[in-house]
Amino acid sequence: MPSMAPNSKAPQSPGRLGPGGWGRGRWATLALLAGLCLTGCAATPNTANPGSQSPGGQAPEGQNPGRQVPARAPDKPPVTPTQISPPVLPEFADLGPEILLPRADSVDAQVAKVGDLVLRQSHAFARLLSAHPKLALSAVDLLVFDVLVARHAEQHGVRLSKQRVEQLAMGEERELRRQVKDELVGVSFQDYIWRLFGMREQDWQVALRLRTAQRLYQGYVLRYLALREDRVQVRFLVHKDKAVAQEVHDKVQVGADFATLALRYSEDASRREGGLLPAFGRGFQHPAATPAFDLKEGEVCAPFEARWGEEPRWFVVYCLEHRKGRDVPFEAVRKQIDADLEATPVTPLETTAYTLRWRNEEEQKAKDSSK
What we know:
alpha+beta, Chitinase A, domain 3, 2 domains, 11 helices, 3-stranded antiparallel beta sheet
């Protein structure tokens, strides 16, 4: 039976990244995925510094920053990489959800050429799928996620403002410039952008604003849909040993702080946040969701067993609060969601739960319509 316990407060997270860690990691991941999605495993990259580029956009033959590159042997077929074209940012006056969707006129573009053999994006993806299937499928998941977000944005009238996108993009650029200046002595910002993304600074700024707009749509849609439905927020602990889970339950019953115990005993990475989960609705696919809506605020459930990854684990769930859904237009809560996203960015867990839920619903609709 659930039992009452004091409302637990979050401990300080010992695992948070210091200044500079999160922004750089996020952009490194974005650079990797962007390269894979746009050009896949393109052949020999052009690593020339943009400052040494010829007017035509290509590096002078035989040059590479800091060293001389031996001339290519004449009997080898020339490898011609295709420069990644910077994304075209739509007019902000009509910055609609379509920026999340693939272009209607997309073609299987060339990414490289070896002699007379043309390599295309489909070849790159096929090669990536065989070499790194999880990464390739993750790119597909990102595409599905963006399509779902675009549809919900259109359905609920979610739109962006030029001012907000520019504010967020400029803030991120300022922070990245500060990190480069403080942590990479002797490296200019222009060189850093070129080395990490293979883009000139101006092109990167366009890409930054487009990606900022896409992320903002994602945050708006996920948090707005969540706000519209009844939700519950909980902390949870997971452990392979039932005795440990039972001990935590018993201690919370007599007044111990659940967040502190989760930090100490839980085997999930969320322990750094005291086992805190984002507030979620009834469609949330997580073991902690099973008892969550039956708990009252301040109650802790008895240990129960559920699968976690490939193995069974024991769970204990503590209810923080119930939140009633609000049927309000997006514009009425835009500022509230902006503040919420600034305080707590969207987590990978939220993204995964959203995609699983709505992808399953779309697939079910397709099955029903085919009957």
